[in-house]
Amino acid sequence: MIMIKKYALNKIAVATLCLILLLMFYFVPTNNNIETIVDENNNKLKETVVYLLDDDNYVSRITTFYDEKDITEDIKKKIDILINGNDDIDKFYPLIPKETKINSVKVEKDSVYIDFSKEILNVNKYLEESMIESLVYTLTEINGINKIYITIDGEKLTKLPNSNKELDYPLTRNIGINKEYNLTSFDNIDKTTVFFLKENEDTTYFVPVTKISNVEAEKIDIIIEELKSPINAQNNLNGYISDNLELVSFNKDDNKIDLVFNNYIFTDNKILESVEYVISKSIFENYDVDEINFSSEEDKNIDTIKKDDDIDLNNMNNNANVKNKKDNLEEQEETEIIEETQDKKTNNYYAN
User: Fold this and answer.
1) CA dihedral for 282, 283, 286, 288, sign (positive or negative)
2) What is the DSSP letter of 20?
3) Among 49, 141, 240, 350, which one is least packed by beta carbons within 10 Å?
4) Could you give the CA distance from residue 283 to residue 226 in angstroms, rounded to a whole number?
């Protein structure tokens, strides 16, 4: 009788254990499910563009990520990064003083109205104009936002706090960024914003520079010449364009631009992504178009870049970097040969 009772109890225990295990498998998610949940959360992260200061004091176009919100929350998050920075982009520096508070944000059609606390006026006197550029360019990266209005505790900010330079409202991208002046008079002043590429360790990013001059030229010609300029290259602003590149023809038709270059647009029989990026980004900044077609004199419609195309700078081909280093090496070797020849001539002169 005792043996039968023990046998029955064992059967009940085993059955109970099996039931518990089945319930655990049913209610506890597997590793695959956990990974799926994580992936779904990552997909909710939104790519956003902010303009922060780099090590060379250029206001730079930087990409980061955060949880997607509505447009008002989007604006607040962007401004928070301009105040406090972001761990993902810690090599770049915010320009708005850290004690600054956002009192309110209001969006009306294509305009944003921001009310800050008075601490924003504590900005470094050398960075106050860059701070306004950073704010305006950051917020106008939002599709449909073109105009910015700033108040301080309810009072309109009419001039910069240190230089007392007046601010013309609405604030738009027409204020320029990282401005460089080449003026011979105050007549026929024009602005052309050129986007260069720059590197900070493993990060590649755009640096826009607004060229302000009296030069009477088509903006596309100014863009190409500035991207070719060795002076900009010396300032670590890269255009990755051959000195021999020439724009053969330029045609703007409605919302499209057709560009025809000589064969120096090619490197190893293809157009580098870096070259397409700097030319396209600069054109979209200065012309109201949605599409750019690249051609050479021999090959038509080689590539097309659209305004809304995603640009992954860190995954672009590295031929541009290789070419740039190769060119620098060749220039260095050529300089050394010239110097060596001059030294020999000098030594021979004094020997005689």
Assistant:
1) negative
2) H
3) 350
4) 13
- 142: nearest Cα among 47, 208, 284, 255: 47
What stretches of 188-241 show up as alpha helix (H) in DSSP?
Answer: 219-228, 230-234
Tell me: pLDDT of 305 over 90.
Answer: yes
Q: Contact, 136 vs 148, CB < 8 A?
A: yes
Verify cis geometry, omega within 30 degrees of 0, for the bond prior to 161.
Answer: no
Task: Tell me what the mean pLDDT of segment 304-312 comes to.
Answer: 91
As given in the structure block, the two tokens for residue 254 are: 């409605």
CA 211 to chain centre: 18
Tokens 């659209």, located at residue: 306
Residue 9: per-residue pLDDT: 47
Cβ-count burial 274-302 (b if 16+ within 10 Å, e if not): bbbbbbbbbbbbbeebebbbbbbeeeeeb
Q: Which of 39-43, 69-73, 153-157 has the lowest mean pLDDT?
A: 39-43
**Residues belonging to the chain:** 352
d(CA 224, CA 211): 13
CA–CA dist 198, 45 (Å, integer): 25
DSSP 271-295: --HHHHHHHHHHHHHHS--SEEEEE
Write down the domain spans for the chain.
2-39
Question: To which residue do tokens 């012309």 refer?
Answer: 287
Q: Which residues of 250-271 are buried (b: 16+ CB within 10 A; e: fewer)?
A: beeeeeebbbbbeeebbbeeeb
Nearest to 302 by CA among 292, 311, 312, 310: 292
- Residue 8: C-alpha distances to residues 13, 16, 18, 31, 236 (Å): 9, 12, 16, 37, 83
User: In degrees rounded to 5, what are phi and psi of residue 170?
Assistant: -70, 150
Question: Which pLDDT value is given to residue 275?
Answer: 96
Q: What is the mean pLDDT of residues 214-220?
A: 93
- One-letter amino acid of 251: N
